[in-house]
């Protein structure tokens, strides 16, 4: 599929907004704006508009020279400020040096150094100098004081005696100041991924900060973070080799990355690891940085799961071992001390398993009460004063649904189904739980139906769609995403953090722009567009089915040329990426390789590997000599896969990412990963001497002359796929010659005679200018060695009254109509409800969904909200309508999410997309990443019809509709879109 990235922007992802620029604007305009700002409140006025960067490389009136002519302005941090602020100031110092080659002087002390221009960094209430500027009315902090994590960057003229101009970076709190510094770093050209993905620093000779006030306001989501999980073998092997394990040196890099992305919350690695216990310097370092430490959903009271293995006495069972468990947890709270943390409460079974049969709600409530008592005892404060979460993960949500409650101050961490589909959201209008709600989301998972932990498989449009709902339904206290090994989730991870900071900034229609901007921040503007396209497309393709679930049977080898299209599309992507890689400056290659080229290549290769294995199996069944070539190709692709991993591990960035691609991903037989990658099983055929012709046709897996029945091609119509193929293949060792005879002069065959060594594909097409109208059966006769003759029937349907370009809407061919949701004829909005396109969401194109997502349930019919699809059907009779929906879950605990379908004026049929409420159904939805719902409809006469897709519940996301008029063949993605003449009216 071709995505067009029409919107181009150079807005930054998280740049602080400029609030005013009085010195450069005409006075009258300033007065008007001042008035507008005054009405809207100190920061709110300009905070809704994006502005381009607040950095310039040219000198200008009242611009602050951060670095000019080889000299950088000194940085000053008060000795009274947080040590974390001083630590990050060192990063700022290093960043400015990297960008400009001129290292600024950094002073952390009681007195600022003497300089005409100076960078003053400080936290309100922690920096006497900045507090004095506020008192002297030289710095207005009205919009930031008392706010959460808010920073302000402002150029202040004559801040104090002897100083002409200062660049003040002030924070409302510790993280506010830190974010201000990292924002400046990013703005001057240091990506948050400069270390974690080797993104080159964008060097500049001179750097100026524009006058005015720059702020990004408060984050929409209070705690934003990620969970390092499932970290063996990749991240574990890497951290062991590079840092000696998951120690404070490793976490130093993690904390920095998190904060550069303006995150604040971390669940540390826990597969045999325990952050507090492994290295006593790690947790204090987190606290110094301002990273809020938690433990994962099943590790109560800050104690890592592995610590129970290390120190626990007796069984992990509250019924039988309460005292020891309490003691264990108490130690966790004592150790936490005053470190800023969010404490997990509740209990699951040992090793993240459900609790035993005997566990019940009363017992769990007791556990929570006892845990809170420990929290209160140890902290000496009421439990409600320590932030806590209770994660409604897996069976724990069932306890909640059955009535279990925890005290109101605890944040309820709602979860997805481990596959990116949120299971539960607060009810709109429901009394707000004072602890609020959060979301635990997955980009990586170990569990059924299958692990997915090798590559990034998370297209951001679906993440957007789910997290948009979370935001709108009020789950805004905490967002945490399971990122596995961190790499290779760089792109979706940063999207998660940016979206959490300001969801309103990124409506669906700006997602492509987000991707371009991200690409630009890493690689500069020259290739930003094509790189964004590759990023979006490889994740889209990987989102169709996790690589771990791909098998030789996934894509149809015979219908709709599905498998070969998949290979072709992936390979085109790789070709584009390779071209950019060759062209781009050497300094960018490592970053580009890990962020773009490698995932595209590795995914393309993996898909081709399985599809080629499928071809080998099919060919072997048909006894084709070429089956053995396919087997050889499988070996080649398998070796290429291993070579790609080896390059990533050993050569990329001189071995910096050693072990990072240790994850096995081939030869899964059940949910758990294989011990090692094993080449898929291939079949070899014995090729006899001599020549023997076999003939296969598109749409069938059998061959002739073995098959007695008639060989028939899919139907030709002016409205469908314009060529169909016949394959001639050799079952023997020696080449043979063939001759083809077409039964009509207007039925073209790409080659009328020739020699076949192994195989030859003939493309058949119709010259519509010359073909008669009506339905014709035309034989194509192929004669091969030993007078073997095979007759293939071509059916040509050239309707009298239906002409391309004249007919409107979609047209049936080959027994189906396949319609992309985005290609509706008419979208009918009503009241506040409107249909919106979510660009690029879904397996084949884009998706449509009704908004707002909190809208009331609708009664379908009459003039209620609907999408209409005009289609031309060739016959009367019964048809089946398959609606392809994103596998959204029943997040509002109703009977299930519903929509309705009707054709023409028939009564809408209401369909519950969750009517099959079984583990089997869910397994299929998530594995296939689609929920297909089918309804049956009567068509009274051939001709034009209107299919209506009605809104019933919000949250239903339609990707495509396939109408089966009797000829639909099995495939994974559904048939490619049918012929259609676009026509959009009355939207
Ligand atoms: O993905 C999840 O949330 C869980 O499977 C993990 O939290 C779990 O701890 C797993 O890594 C095993 O311990």
UniProtKB/TrEMBL annotation:
Q: What biological process terms from GO does the record include?
A: carbohydrate metabolic process
| Domain (Gylcosyl hydrolase 115 C-terminal) ranges | 809-977
Q: GO: which molecular function terms? A: hydrolase activity
The leader peptide range reads 1-45
Do you know which Pfam families this protein is assigned to? GH115_C, Glyco_hydro_115
Alphabetic keyword roster: Hydrolase, Signal
Q: Which residues form a coiled coil?
A: none
Source superkingdom: Bacteria
The molecule here is called Glycosyl hydrolase
